[in-house]
Amino acid sequence: MLSHHLLLALRNLRRRAFFSVVNITGLGVGLATCWLIGLYVWHEKSFDRFFPHADRICAVALDLKMGEEEGKTTNTPPPLGPRLAADFPEIELAARTFYLQESNVRLEKPGQAPLSFAETGAYAADTSFLELFDFPMLEGDPATALDHSRNLVLSENAAQKYFGKNSAIGQTLLINDRPFTVSGVAKQLPAASTVQFDFLVPMADFKVVERFSWSWIWLQVDTWVRLRETPTPASLAALEGKFPAMVRKHAPAAFERIGQNFEEQLRKGDRWNVQLLPLPSLHLDHPNLSSRLSTLGDGTQVMMFGIIGLLILILASMNFMNLTTARASTRAREVGVRKALGSDRGTLVGQFLTESILYSSLGMVLATVLAGVSLPLFNQLTGQELGISQLFALQNLGLAAGLTVLTGLLGGLYPAFFLSKFQSGKVLKTNVGSIKGGHAGIRNGLVVFQFSATIALMLCSWMVLRQLEFAQKSSPGLNREHVLILPVLRNLENPTEVESFRQQISQLPEVSTVSRATFLPSLGSFGDFYEPEQGDQNHAVTSNLLLSSYLGDTRLVPALGLDIIAGRNFQDDTGLADSCSVILNEAAVRAIGWENPIGKWLRYPGNQNQRFQVVGIMRDFHLGSVRTAIEPAAIFHHSSNTYKVYASYLAVRMHPGTEKTCIEKTGKLWATAIPNAPFQYDFLDESFARIYRSEAKMGAVLSVFTGLALFIGCLGLFALAVFTAEQRTKEIGVRKVLGASVASVTALLARDFIKLVVIAIFIASPVAYHFMHKWLSNFAYHVDIQPWMFVLAGSAAIVIAFLTVSFQSIKAALANPVQSLRNE
Amino acid sequence: MIELKNIERYYPTGAVKTYVLRYINAHIAEGEFVSIMGPSGSGKSTLLHILGMLDEPTDGEYWFLGEGVHKFNERRRTEMYREYIGFVFQAYHLIDDLTVYENLETPLMYKKVPSGERKSRIADILDRFNMVAKKDLFPNQLSGGQQQLVGIARALIGRPKLILADEPTGNLQSPQAKEIMEIFRTLNKEDGVTIIQVTHSEENARYGNRILHLKDGRVENEELIKNGASS
Lengths: 824, 231
Ligand SMILES: Nc1ncnc2c1ncn2[C@@H]1O[C@H](COP(=O)(O)OP(=O)(O)OP(=O)(O)O)[C@@H](O)[C@H]1O
Ligand SMILES: [Mg+2]
Description:
By secondary structure, chain A is α+β, with helices and mostly antiparallel strands. The A-B interface holds A 1, 4, 8, 11-12, 15, 330, 333-334, 336-345, 347, 423-426, 428-429, 431-432 and B 45-46, 49, 52, 54-56, 74-75, 77-78, 81-82, 85, 87, 89-91, 93-98, 106-107, 109-111, 154, 158.
């Protein structure tokens, strides 16, 4: 029976070639999309599960509220890890890592030029780190590889990069000019690993962590623990319940050193809670975690992709359903005859399902080709590195087979049951040709659904793109364009060397100003608490203010194009004129509550109550993402020496249009000033754009999805139009004989479809509004949802639908009436 | 074999009921050959559809082999088609997507006849109907008469115990029609197959043992044929 069904299905496929092509194309596109997205979702969900003890490993996080600031972070202070391991028997191991920022790694080769790269994957780690994760090692012993000073563990990739096929063990690499000896090589970690590293060196070699070992405020390390037993939610909560006592015992001394009373802060509503985040759910379940772990994913986004992928597949299946039920009129008779010949319902259902699964299988064949071809684009969209071999790995082929059957059932079940239900008597009683194509209602419903989904996607992706454009381009108070950024800290530690390098660059004719600063907007800032001095009884001001600040020179304001709206910029760099000056932004002034800020004073408890006088106010600008409100910010002068940070940049403002030559010349200057490090540069606008990588990804993916949905919807609509025109050939012929014009016949045919699209607009608009509104509320600053967007998207949908349908309608209207009447 | 008690069939047209069949009472025994005659629109096809369980009466009872047809579910009906009934449609109703050969094969497949026997039965009947050369053509490549022949062959091939034929020879030349009637007679006489046919031709009707005359949905009179089939 099956081979008979198959034979019939194949013949139908050939005899209705046009509809078959439409069906298979639609299904192919839908399946390819769903397949690729399935792989992506699976990849995201599989994060960290490969670790042998994944279920016992937790990241240590802090749930903090300090004054106005609150949030959850994996940034932890140095003493926390050792304390956890010492105080709680439930915890088997604890290990900390300290990120070494971008580092210069160099391999000296006698008699040759050294091999040198700027590396972003270097960390200092506790000796227990490798053991805690049980990283598989190619060479070296994980238990001891980091035990000795100046040891170095490489990733497989890094070992290959510097030593090729030779063994790396015992070799020496210079990291920021300090020599380290390779004591181990770790096997390449899967891409689905939260922890990624290329270079690991012993924590003990980085004195800065040691120096802050008293501090519960310096949140510069990441801490991991491994529990003795796999935790349950209850056991985890019980363990976490014991942490506050530990914090209250050890943290207050540290807070006292910076002049704060920990207990009193807690009484005022502050929080300082230690939490454990189990590794298996770390990747997707903590969207608002602030973290240095750059691999964290976004569960909502993954789910959204998954849902949209499935939606595309459903849209494609709907085309199939639509065309099958549209053909029901012709097939109803067949069903009736077969029943009178002794077929039972199950056999008929089997026949129709065989047909739909044949279509979905052919769709899958096409999907395989499409998926293979679009893989590079897909990788680019999702930031993955899937290879063809992974696409066709065994479990993925299982996924593909599952999808094929699912699609076959999705598209085939309804028509199968609908058609097999026909009663012989009803459909056979009358003569040929007079059976009406039933279920137009459902078909219309499906078209409305398809177009609603498409229009909603259209609106949402447009909104995302508009917001992205706004976030990347809108920059009040700061001129992001034509600013070259040079990271110089690790390369030139001596301030006079930096200064002379700065002067060399500023002499280039392409350059208008060069400024030296600790941090720059979009690249971080130094945050600490300051105490504004009181106003008077009438105008109380806040006593404690968290300020994000930069240490800069006179030229920082012009180099960044900052806008001083009151007071003045720093005056000169030679003397110490501005060592006690500060420039505040408007948000800081608002937060403090000063009426006339110029001339007022701030105290810095973090550095012996150093005093600063406000000399200027700058217009608010975005320090980072538009997701968060603009925070109080300040610029201090280098000569204040108020704090030390391990960051140093040159910001080079170039004359527009000279970027290329400017970079070339700067590169040459770099090569002589900093011969040991490769030339590195960045642009301020691009650095800002990178903050919105996740939004850009979402915008790109949504646009692609929208395009696919539109394509599938139009394909279905086109086929339906062809079908309707075919069915109404006789009517059209008669109407023309009676004097109807081509235009009126076209309108007659197109009108029904356009009506459906209009209904879809009214369904899609509120749905899209809901999602857009929800998404935009993630941003402190965002574009508005405008009524004209709905009008424009709706009109676009109508125009596209009309073009799709009218081609066929006009063709039908132009046909010679005699011909169509003779056919009947 | 067949017992009809007060069968009625009406269509609701607007507010009034249009009766197509009224007070039909009939008894047809196994082995009979009955012809139904009557003017166009008198309800012949409707009656035959009811007999063939393709349609249901709106009132009255239909007993088939002592069982009430109104109690049949879809599965039981399917069994009936497989075991007892062969139907020849007035409008042929061949399956467009199947060749002549496949159209003939379909009922055998539903009856789960093994493929070897299917082949020989089809070869046999194609031969009997002179259609061997046409076996790979599709219905739309056949003339009306040829389609009708295939429709008849398809009804016969399953060796049903009851043949219901709605104007089986309406599109055939008289010698050909005669051949079909002869086949019917042989089946009836030699194999004891019960046959009920609708026909416009007095001559064809006389092949049976009884003629039911329908008019406006009622049995107007019943005519027994002396030298017809045995009863
Ligand atoms: N769906 C329907 N609604 C209303 N009336 C119907 C319907 N189907 C059939 N009829 C009517 O039932 C009557 C009987 O139809 P039937 O097909 O049984 O006639 P017939 O005797 O077979 O005619 P013919 O010799 O032309 O085949 C006709 O008058 C027809 O108009
Ligand atoms: Mg009739």
